[in-house]
UniProtKB/TrEMBL annotation:
PROSITE patterns: UBC_1, UBC_2
Classification lineage: Eukaryota, Fungi, Fungi incertae sedis, Zoopagomycota, Kickxellomycotina
Entry's family note: Belongs to the ubiquitin-conjugating enzyme family.
InterPro entries: UBC, UBQ-conjugating_AS, UBQ-conjugating_enzyme/RWD
Keywords: ATP-binding, Nucleotide-binding, Transferase, Ubl conjugation pathway
SUPFAM superfamilies: UBC-like (SSF54495)
Protein name from the UniProt record: E2 ubiquitin-conjugating enzyme
Coiled coil segments of this chain: none
Source species: Coemansia reversa (strain ATCC 12441 / NRRL 1564)
Amino acid sequence: MADVPKRILKEIERLNRDPVPGIEVNTIEDNIRYFNVIMCGPSKSPYEGGRFKLELFLPEEYPMSPPKVRFLTKMYHPNIDKLGRICLDILKDKWSPALQIRTVLLSIQALLSAPNPDDPLANDVADQWKTDEKLAIQTATEWTQKYAIEVWAKNPEVKP
């Protein structure tokens, strides 16, 4: 761990000491720059009750460049594509070295509460969100039930 920047070690220490509500973050033993994340869907959203798997990776350039984050759980969301990539300004052009892993995760959780179909990554989902929001929310709820709740219920031995 001698070659890992103190900044990363401090962020990990803070995440362990003061966890983010609704978000579990676990480092991978042999690669301290790689994290498994379990994010609970926000209440009063179509993702409520879901437990979503994400992966987060800190590139060598971190904190001068943003972390790489993607959903591993299948999502129906205008700002998350089929590969789990996330359209979020702080993961792209609005990144600042002042931001931290904690901020990124909270921002992703907020994105689940407030999808932005005007800045989509999944155009088909965004189109449905704009033309029939009720149906889009229903579909997102169904996907949450199918991929983020049932999976855990059927496989309780699966560790987040």
